[in-house]
Design a protein that fits this description.
By secondary structure, the chain is of the alpha+beta class. It has helices at residues 32-40, 50-58, 102-110, 130-140, 157-168, 215-221; strands at 65-71, 85-91, 118-121, 147-151, 188-192, 195-199, 230-234, 238-242, 246-250, 254-259, 266-270, 281-286, 290-294, 298-302, 306-312, 318-322. Bound molecules: guanosine-5'-diphosphate and magnesium ion (MG).
Length: 325
Amino acid sequence: MIKKCLGCGINLQIIDKEKEGYTEDLNNEICERCFKLKNYGEYKEVSFTNEDYTKILNTIPKESLVIYLTSLLNINLDYINKFNNIIIVLTKKDLLPKSVQDYKLINYISNMVTNYLDIEIISSIKNYNLDSLLNKIKKYNKDNKPVYFVGMTNSGKSTLINKLIKNYSNKEIEVTTSLYPSTTLNKIELEIDNLKIIDTPGILAKGSILNSLSLKEIKKITPKKEIKPRSYQLKKEDSLLIEDYIRIDFYDDNNITIYIANNLKITKMKHSNPKLKNIKKKTFNLEKNKDIVIEDLCFIKLTKKGKIDIYSSYNVNIYERNNLI
Ligand SMILES: Nc1nc2c(ncn2[C@@H]2O[C@H](COP(=O)(O)OP(=O)(O)O)[C@@H](O)[C@H]2O)c(=O)[nH]1
Ligand SMILES: [Mg+2]
């Protein structure tokens, strides 16, 4: 029988050291890649692509109960229409300021999606609402079929599953989690509190800034603690520089708040400063109360209407939406 890695779901093999699933000894429970990631934080690239992950998602029966996770910092519901029975789980609440109220976030999301059974806001790290989520899963999983945990890469699927194992089973196993994309490589089946739970690999959004960054930079831009929002009163002719990644030029007075990892540097300057100006820009003519989202880096809350230009060093998706907070 083929044995699977308990960390990432890949078939274990002893033949090719360079290929996924390699282990020195088939008696091991996890592959060498998971072992190194878990114990030394060492990340090894994989040859899998989004196409491979999509194929895996396509094997999920349409009527299954799907727990669809999205991080509150990077709301992405792109694949939600693939499924018919969804509980939406908004993750990483601990990273947003404590003052942000759950019901407002729930309202916001419920205006974006029509076809869902329920919504829960959680923080796996802080154990927030996990009892409530488990009860909801049990409520909607009447026939005890497998329950699939789905969502973009880094939405927190594996971390949540580990917390559920820890809180509600007496097993000692842990699937592999990391702040890098492509940690989980295949479906992983687990049993928790009489539920059959299946972890799945996540897709990396095409427009994610993570596609362009080194592992060191990914570590740097990942918020680790509650975000301290940074607010600026800007006059026309003002510009903001976010590290060396993003430049924003304001053409009207505006009050803005940036939600981004606390350690990233934001500098105020003038339009006349040439920094990052020789690259392609994207222009927005914003109505009032819009956010600008820079995928997987940050979101910026603007209150007034006005024109802005955004320059980006990387090929990252930048879009507007209504104010989340
Ligand atoms: N702050 C915070 N970070 C989380 C939470 N859940 C997951 N993460 C982090 O998000 C990253 C991706 O988590 P992972 O579970 O591997 O995501 P997956 O790709 O969806 O399985 C890891 O660095 C986790 O530590 C949470 O509730 N709060
Ligand atoms: Mg995972």
